[in-house]
Amino acid sequence: MPWTEGRQTMAEFSQKRGKQRDEVLGSTVDFLLANARLVLGVGGAAVLGIATLAVKRLIDRATSPRDEDDAKGDTTRLEESWKELNLLTATPRQQPRPPPAALSQPVSPPDPSPAAPEGPTDTGPEMSLQLSSPVPLCLTFQEKLLAFEQTHVTIPAAHVALAKQLTGDIGLELQAYLRNKFPELPFGALVPGGPLYDGLQAGAAERVHILVPLVLEAGLWSLVPGADTVARDPRCWAVRRTQLEFRPRGSSPWDRFLVGGYLSSRVLLELLRKALASCVNWPAIGSLLGCLIRPSVAAEELLLDVQHERLELTVAVLLVVAGAGPEDPLLLAWPLEGLAGNLWLQDLYPAEAARLRVLDERDAGMRRRLLRLLCGVCRRHPSLRRLDRRHLTQVVLRLGEHEADWAEAALGARFLQALEALIDSLERASLPCQLNPSVNLFGSLRDEEIDALGFALFCGLQAPEWLL
């Protein structure tokens, strides 16, 4: 009958399409397995092959014409599919590789796997679950802190040597210029310095210093504490001209910078600023040293931006007045405001760095290492940038004198203690300087700035990884 013949024709057509589909799917599976063996290895290719075979059978059952024999064999096929899925679950997963060796402890090599038995073994459900669960890789805060130090704080030794060389060469060129431009002014030998030279540099963004000392005549100048001046500023000192009745004004080459009988730091800063910005031939000096040097005109300080093919550097040129004795303060010409505009700011950094060095002599330098970490963290977070090296040094000095354990294993605990000490000082809005207790280093912060710093540090104390 026509209806019977049409049904037979449709069956033959379905069988041909099924064979073509099987041939295409089979060639696709072979191609996938051949490439998977190259990428995943033999074990990965075996897992992929089992999964592909299971999916192929599901597709065959869904698309093949259903007859009475297929209906009878559904239970058998279902059992075979679940056995294949069980094989997939029992197949051991490849363990994740540990991160690179940038942490505190070396990563131990994996234990050699025992030889596989030759015969089939019966793996129970407990063994299957143990093999399938991945091993979690959890880093402690100490390890994360050391990784942050390696990535964002530590400077390669080659960069340190290059930065010192460039700074020294710039200092020599600047000294030659000052002697030619101002032969009547007795400047001393320019001295490079700063955290880079004391092992306290935290990353490549910190400034390098070039100190330009003024040679003052003995007996003609005296230092007056800023608290005894009209400014009443304990951070500063005044340099007063004396012996005017015997050595009248004009006897010293520095008398041209007097304001009200005192040597003005502001007038000297303006003189040197104009010279650095418009008179020094920085392109020629830069080409001689193999770098690009630009004076920073917008900054209130005397800054030079140095660009080398291997690093970038900021050099701060600082006019200084050093006392005759070792106990005399080191004074900086700093852009101050108000009544203290003509005074000189006392630089406590050399004394603080020396005290840290003495405390670290009995340890492995952990206090200076903690200071570098704190400086690196605060510089990277916009909400903590108001905390500079002066604030952090006071906290580390206090911890260094009271805490006994300064081993590397305790570095994370000391870091959290430093955060707690900063929060406590912010709550009181007071951080007295150890070398000059009358100076409150938080005195220049506004209330809203103190609140923002305290909130950021409190959040960092609750989740220290957020700071890294």
UniProtKB/TrEMBL annotation:
Signal peptide: none annotated. The chain crosses the membrane at residues 31-55. It is found in: Mitochondrion outer membrane. It is a single-pass membrane protein. It comes from the Eukaryota. Residues 159-352 form the Mitochondrial dynamics protein MID51-like C-terminal domain. Keywords: Membrane, Mitochondrion, Mitochondrion outer membrane, Transmembrane, Transmembrane helix. Residues 379-453 form the Mab-21-like HhH/H2TH-like domain. Residues 89-129 are annotated as: Disordered. Residues 95-117 have a biased composition (Pro residues). This is Mitochondrial dynamics protein MID49 isoform X2. It comes from Vulpes vulpes (Red fox).
